[in-house]
User: Fold these one by one.
Assistant:
Number 1:
Amino acid sequence: MRLKEEGQVTVYGINYKDNPSAADQWLNALGDPFTRTGADVDGRVAIEWGVYGVPETFVVDAEGTIVYKHIGVLTDQALQNDILPLFSQVTQ
C-alpha cells in the first residue's frame, strides 16, 4: 500500500479466479493497495501473462512490456532490492 500512498507508481491488481464481489469485500476489509483492480474470473489473463502461481508481481514499462516478474509474496526485501530500482528505468 505504501507505493500507492506515496504516488511512486500506478499499481494495478488482477483478482485471479475470485468472485468479484468477494474480492472487493476482502480488499475493503484488509486495505486496497491498488489504483484499479480487474477480474480474471476464468484464468485466461493469467495464462496469457504466463502466471505459474499466485501471487505474482509484474513491472510493466510505459510501452506495456513486462520488464520484471516476481513470483510469490512480495516482501519488503524484494521490493527494495528488485522492484524499486526498476522504476527509474520504466518511467523514462
Number 2:
Amino acid sequence: MSWLQSNVNGELYTSVLEEEYKETLKYYGLQSSDMIFQQDNASIHCASAPSKWFQKNKVKLLSWPAYSPDLNPIENAWAMLKKREQMTRPPPSVIEADQAFFDRVSKLWYDLATPEN
C-alpha cells in the first residue's frame, strides 16, 4: 500500500507501478508473465504514461467493462476498510490523524489477506 499525498495523475501512477508492482512480484516470487493486471478504466489508468509502461514491461491487462464496480473485488475490500476505519477515533492533531489513518488502513489492508479475518 502506498501513501500518496497529492492528486494522482498518469505520471505518478506510473511511478507507483514501477516501484510497487515490481516489489510485489519480487516479494511473492512471481514473474510479470505469470500475472494478469486488473484495474478499472479511470482516466489515470488509461493515460499515455501508464499505457506505455504496461507495454514496455509486457504486463497483461484484464479487459474491463467501462463502469463495473460490482465486478471488482477490490471495491468490497475498500468498503470493508472504510467500515472498519469509521469505527476508530481520530487522534487530536491533523498530522497525527493522517499518519494514524494511514497506519490503520495499512494494517486493515494486510489483515484482509489473513483467512481468519
Number 3:
Amino acid sequence: MADFNNYGYSQTMGPLLRAEVERQLLFDLENYYKFEGPLRFDWSESCIEGKHANYLDGSLDNYSGISILNEKMELVADGWMDFILTDKLIIYWEFIDLYTGNVSVKGKDEPGIPTHIWNRLTTQEQARLKQQRLEYYQ
C-alpha cells in the first residue's frame, strides 16, 4: 500500500528539491511510456544507492525504490534514479520498470546515461562524463 507521507531515505530532500526531482522524473518517464492522467510518487521504500549532492533546499542521492502510482492507486512504474550535477541539475531514470494493467512494459534495464539525456549535455559536460558513459555502454 502506498504511503505518501513517508519519504523513506529521500527525507533529506526539501519541498523545492523534491518538486524538481519529481518534475524531471515525470518528464524523463515520457521517453519510455506516456501514461494518462495524474501520477503520484511513493518514496516510502526509497533507498540510497551512492552518489550525493546538496541542491536547492536539501540533499540528493541516487535513490532506488521509487514507485509511481496512477489516480486509481495502481503501480505504473518503479525504479532507480540518477542525476548529473554541473551548473544545472539533470535527473533521469537509471533503471525503470513500467506496468500497464497487469502487463509489464519494457522500461530501462541498462545502467548509464541514456542517449536522450546525453544529447542535452554540452560538449564540455560530455567530455567530462565520457568515461563514465563508456563504462556502461561497452
Number 4:
Amino acid sequence: MLVGMTANNETGNLHPIKEMAEMAKAHDAFFVTDAVQAVGKIPLNVKDSGVDMLALSAHKMYGPKGVAALYIRKGFPKIDLVAQITGGGQEMGLRSGTLNVPGIVGLGKASSISLKHQVAESERLFNLRNKLEIGLLKITGSQRNGSSERLPHVCNVSFKDILGKPLLIRINKKLAVSSGAACSSISDKPSHVLTAMGLDKATAMATLRLSLGRSTTDKDVDFAIDYISRVVNDLRTAS
C-alpha cells in the first residue's frame, strides 16, 4: 500500500498523485490519498488520477465538522476493509451506527457549493495569497516555504533571527495563525515537514502558516502584512 497526501496542509505543496498511483500499480500495490486539504480548492478527478481510495472532510469546505467520506474505486478487489465500528452493519458494513443524516446532507451541499464557486474562488484566493507573500517577503530575513505548485490559499513564511514562541504569541493576538499544522498549533516542537525540507529548528519554529478563506478580503491582507511586519521588527529590536 502506498499512502500520500494530495496536498500538504502546512505548505500547500501539491503532490503528483497520478504518478504515485502509477508507481503503486507498477508494484502491484494500491494507492490511498488524503485529499482533505485539496477537495473544494483545486480540480480533482478520481478516474483520471487513478487513485484506489480517497479521503475528504466536510469542514474543509465549510460543511459540518465531524463528517467525512471515503471514496473507494468501483470494483476495487485487492483488500477487504475492516470496520472500525461494528454493530448494525450500516454503510455497507463499513461503519455501523445510525446514519448522521444532517451531516451527510451538509457534506453533499458543501461539496456542491464548493464545486460551483471553485474556479472563481481559487483565483481570488490565489491573488490574495500572492499579495500576502509579496508583502511578507519584503521583511528582512524572511523566506517562503513551498514550491510553485501549491494550493491557492496557503501561505507559509519563516523569519530568521527571531524566537518562534514570542512571534506566535504576539501575532495570535490579532491574527489566527500557527507555526505548522493548524491541528497542532500549540506544539512546542518545530514542524517535521519544515525540518524535512531542510530548515533548521530555530527557523522552523519562527514560521507562520496563514490560510485564507472565503471571508478573507483585500483589507485583511493589508492588515496582516502591516501587523506581522511591525511585530517582527519589534521583536528583533527588543532582542
